[in-house]
Design goal:
This protein is mostly helical and 404 residues long. The protein is built from 13 helices and nine strands.
């Protein structure tokens, strides 16, 4: 190597090191706000009490879902897509409080789900199995839990079709190969399986699905369609539509939250900058949306013509808060501060009397005022088990990321 070449090489190394240092200096560092941290701890203390009440009212072999039209507790069997959220929330609460009664309830309800590891008829195994067994394995690793999660990943993988590049969401006669934005949330299970087994095929499916979704689900403003229907044979897009949103061209608020969370996870698992960029674009759409209420708890759709009497969706807010907390740690100081501050604002709102239930009320769910499927008049302005799950996850993330 000549002196000139050596000098150029050294200069290039200095430039790279300087760039790395600048990036490191610019990286956002989470810092706890004392008032928000107090809210977080108060909320978690309340959640432990509330869920111990709930445990006394959920029938054996069933799982809590929401509130019935008559005000009573609505439950589900293990095959319903929300079945993993109750045990998953309990595992978070056990992690916080180390209460053995909470742990026992988590284990008892989670084991009801064991048979679902073989369920190849749903794309929701990530929700069902990773939120439950994934949290259990994280806190109490066991070969039994690991085996169940790997089998669940195998079952989910059967719904992937290479010609489309996606995991099929629903099996119905209305659409050929429907894929919903919610499906981004089930990729974390496959990412985990790839690391746990060393088999890259799981990660390949997750990345291919994320890439196909990124190409076809999003509009120029980075709002997302709810459903994209593909041609099974050619993989071409047949139509872009909605099921739960206001209209085909509207932005269903929980759908935007699913996308934000999903691409944040995919960046964490792959470090592909395209996923980080996508998550940040979605975050900008949500946080800069003129239809977003001041308390950052969105209406059930961002494009409802008349918001005067529109219902909110606390579940969308909780999912968004949890995603923004994580996304902030991957962003530079300016953007990270924006995400962190927004997440804190959402936590403040959801911790207020406007959304947080009182002990023993709300069928012992934590949050009020979520909207499941407005157009079908299903689960409107009620508590939802997944709203609680992502709310508690956000609270736990706040503590972990601030070292508190």
């Amino acid at each position: 190597m000549t002196n000139t070449t050596t000098a150029r090489y050294a200069a290039a190394c200095l430039l790279i090191c300087s760039s790395w240092l600048q990036q490191a200096k610019a990286q956002f560092t989470p810092k706890a706000n004392k008032q928000v941290l107090q809210l977080v701890n108060n909320d978690l203390d309340f959640a432990v009490k509330q869920y111990k009440h709930m445990a006394q009212h959920v029938p054996e072999k069933l799982l809590p879902r929401t509130t019935n039209s008559d005000g009573g507790l609505m439950t589900s069997n293990t095959g319903w897509w929300t079945s993993g959220f109750y045990p998953g929330t309990l595992w978070y609460l056990y992690e916080y409080a180390h209460d053995t009664a909470v742990q026992a309830e988590a284990t008892k309800r989670m084991l009801l789900l064991t048979k679902e590891q073989y369920n190849k008829g749903t794309h929701d195994l990530g929700f069902m199995m990773y939120c439950s067994f994934g949290n259990a394995y994280r806190l109490q690793p066991s070969d039994a839990y690991k085996k169940i999660l790997i089998t669940s990943s195998n079952s989910l993988s059967t719904r992937f079709k290479p010609t489309v590049g996606c995991i099929k969401s629903w099996d119905n006669k209305e659409w050929q190969f429907p894929v919903i934005i919610d499906n981004m949330m089930n990729l974390e299970l496959l990412c985990w399986a790839s690391k746990a087994t060393g088999d890259s095929s799981y990660l390949h499916i997750a990345k291919t699905h994320a890439n196909t979704t990124m190409a076809h689900h999003f509009r120029p403003d980075y709002s997302s369609y709810h459903v994209v229907n593909y041609d099974t044979t050619t993989g071409k897009v047949i139509s872009r539509i909605t099921a739960q949103g206001y209209a085909d061209e509207s932005a269903w608020s929980r759908g935007q939250a699913w996308g934000l969370y999903g691409y944040t996870v995919m960046y964490r698992e792959t470090k592909d900058p395209a996923y980080l960029q996508q998550a940040q674009h979605i975050a900008a759409y949500i946080l800069n949306n003129p239809a977003m209420p001041k308390d950052l708890v969105p209406y059930w759709d961002y494009n409802i013509p008349d918001t005067a009497n529109a219902k909110r969706d606390a579940s969308a807010a909780a999912i968004t808060a949890s995603a923004l907390l994580e996304l902030s740690t991957y962003a530079d100081k300016k953007e990270g501060t924006k995400y962190w501050t927004a997440a804190e604002s959402i936590i403040r709102s959801l911790s207020s009397a406007a959304y947080l239930a009182k002990e023993g009320e709300n069928n012992n769910f934590l949050l009020m005022h979520s909207t499941g499927f407005f157009k079908a008049n299903s689960e409107v302005d009620v508590p939802l088990t997944y709203a609680d799950y992502y709310f508690v996850e956000a609270l736990m993330r706040y503590k972990k990321l601030t070292g508190k």
